[in-house]
Amino acid sequence: MLSKRIIPCLDVKDGRTVKGVNFVDLRDAGDPVELAWNYSNQGADELVFLDITATVERRKTMVELVKAVARQINIPFTIGGGINEIADADALLNAGADKISINSAAVRNPALIDELAKAFGVQFVVIAVDTRSTGNKNIVHLNGGRLPTERETLEWILEAESRGAGEILLTSMDHDGTKAGFDNGLLKTVNDAVHIPVIASGGAGSVQHFVDVFEKTNVDAALAASVFHYGEILIPDLKNTLQQNSIEVRMV
């Protein structure tokens, strides 16, 4: 049985880690390099770095900052933000990324998934999906959650998998930053439908929320930001509780 993964997420804007609620009202959460070092030492299984305004500002991810973070950690490192072509992914790979995360660019040009998977391997390509419930549908949103599309979330995820996505990072915008728990209903629906790992994102507020998401949805990993950044949950404590609940995790 594969161990469940705990993944802190660094949402980076102007060189600082930030965190908001429902993708707005961002506040400072610290230096990404220091946070990365801390999480690597605490026993995080992976680290995700998202340059959250790169797409909106139409620029590339901050490669120098990525390099600085990569030097501080010894765990798998996923980077997203502003990746539109093979050359962007190549630059991040050379800067220390183990995987890249694409969102808006993949929806606008789905063939990019095929190209990246062919160039770097399926395991390198993480498709990030920001979704919000609209009426009785879950709809994909782009540009850091600012722009709704006409794509239904599950339909898009199945297409991404068929094109070569190696992993899905699924963020519920309705739950993001609320600390009210993950969107377990949506996560279970998606996880049951795909054959690749799913990372749950959006809503973590307590250790019990992590227990719930693994027990109720069987996703492969759970990602969180503010509860880790502000020291509300310490990763060793979280993993101890998960282990006590018979959830397999990697202990340091």
Number of strands: 12
Radius of gyration, CA atoms, in whole angstroms? 16 Å
> Please, how many helices?
10
Mean pLDDT: 91
The sequence of SSEs as H and E is EEEHEHEHEHHEEEHEHEHEHH
Structural class: alpha/beta
Helix content: 25-40%
Adjacency order of strands in the biggest sheet = 1-4-5-6-7-10-11-12
Low-pLDDT regions: none
What is the 3D form? globular
Strand proportion, as a percent range, falls in 25-35%
How far apart are the termini?
A: 18 Å
Let me know the largest β-sheet.
8 strands, parallel, barrel
Q: Can you walk me through this structure?
A:
- With 252 residues, this protein is an alpha/beta fold.
- The chain contains 10 helices and 12 strands.
- Strands 1-4-5-6-7-10-11-12 form an 8-stranded parallel β-barrel, surrounded by 6 helices.
- Strand 11, helix 8 and strand 12 (221-224) form a beta-alpha-beta unit.
- Helix 1 (32-42) runs parallel beside helix 2 (63-70) and helix 7 (184-193) packs parallel to helix 8.
- The longest helix is centred in the first third of the chain and has 11 residues, at 32-42.
- It is globular and about 45 Å long.
- It starts with a strand and ends in an 8-residue tail after the last helix.
